Amino acid sequence: MRLKLDISNIQGFLSDGQLSELRREAGEALKRLSSGSGAGAEFTGWMRPLDKGPELELIRQNAGKIQKESDALVVIGIGGSYLGARAALEFVKSPLYNAFDKDTPDIFFVGNSMSPDAINETIALLGDRDFSINVISKSGTTTEPAVAFRVFRSMLEKRCGREASAKRIYATTDREKGVLRAMARQEGYQCFAVPDDVGGRYSVLTPVGLLPLAVAGVDIDEMLAAARGVFERPCAGDTDDPVIGYAAARSGLYRAGKRVEILAAFEPSLRFVCEWWKQLFGESEGKNHKGLFPASVINTADLHSMGQYIQDGERILTETFLKVEKGHGDITVPDMPDYADELDYLSGRSFTWANHQALAATQTAHAAGGVPNMRIDLPDRSAGSFGELVTFFELACAVSGYMLGVNPFDQPGVEEYKKNMFSLLGRPGY
Fold first, then answer.
1. Domain count, the chain
2. Domain boundaries, position 89
3. How far is 252 from 182, CA to CA, in rounded Å?
4. Is residue 136 within 8 Å of residue 77, measured between CB atoms?
5. In this structure, is residue 131 part of a structural domain?
6. Which terminus of the chain has a lower count of CB atoms within 10 Å, N or C?
7. pLDDT per residue over 29-42, tens digit each?
């Protein structure tokens, strides 16, 4: 496992004795997870990433087909149906992936809000280009992606007819049942299965995330191999394991009175990793009036806004920093001795070095200000690093949930807003 965890900045907040006991408890929770004896064990299929086989080959074949016949892919989904794929795409490629990568189709994510502007702006960006659709929904009845699918399906059918458009629509849905599966059978869409034993927020390394990532040219084989390496390592009971260390530390800080965990990244390419992480931990732990509230900042920009509160506000915070050791490139501060900008002390220094100094300075300042923090180090922005990171967080989240005394694989509270929205929208039966 190339990912590294540093928890030295929680010293003074948790004693060595407390951490030792917390690690032991986290190790026991990991054993329950690995043995399938914990709550929600029927939803741990994410612990078995796809290997060579017909399903993975089908993803590759259809990704190639989309690349050949389309200039863009419209990915329709909400929550776990899109956050993981977008997180991977922005991390491995760029937040500006559509502008930079002209060798693969543009990827547009819609169906994650009810905003007409979001739909109209995507339509405008598509213009008259050929496009395909990947609609992702376990049931097919979730309102936001369902109405977006109507819009883009209608648009596609007007361009090339119902029969031809069906060959450009790819449905990722339940293996057997549901509205979308029935529609796919009727219309002849190519289907991919959302595994029965995997919840949406844990699904990025299933066809949910792998198809759009393969279309975008991300090395999904490298990503899956890295994930399998995390799951296959001998870790149960090893108290030095980073999964155990992270789960133990954050659980101990919660018990010590911390109520908010901030994921702090120093790369804009990590913004949607943070969004995915917030769903993962928010839906998994936020039950029975328990759980750390997951928040995020993208620094150094947010140091000039949220930084003041983190440094001097309510002492309910803990923080986890994400550090990328090496990005896709670097840039050096130019030597300009005739300019009066007082920056000569940075001449010849790299931006990577300066960014890392900013992170180190922030960690030290926040810890001194009463915010215990940890740091996760990633070697680079490769597909393998992403595969390691998501599996690390998924395992740590499940272990943390067990330590909290909740089922980390259900989300009963999510249904409440849906019932009210269906009623206000006039859906029959509500």
1. 2
2. 45-218
3. 47
4. yes
5. yes
6. C
7. 999 999 999 999 99
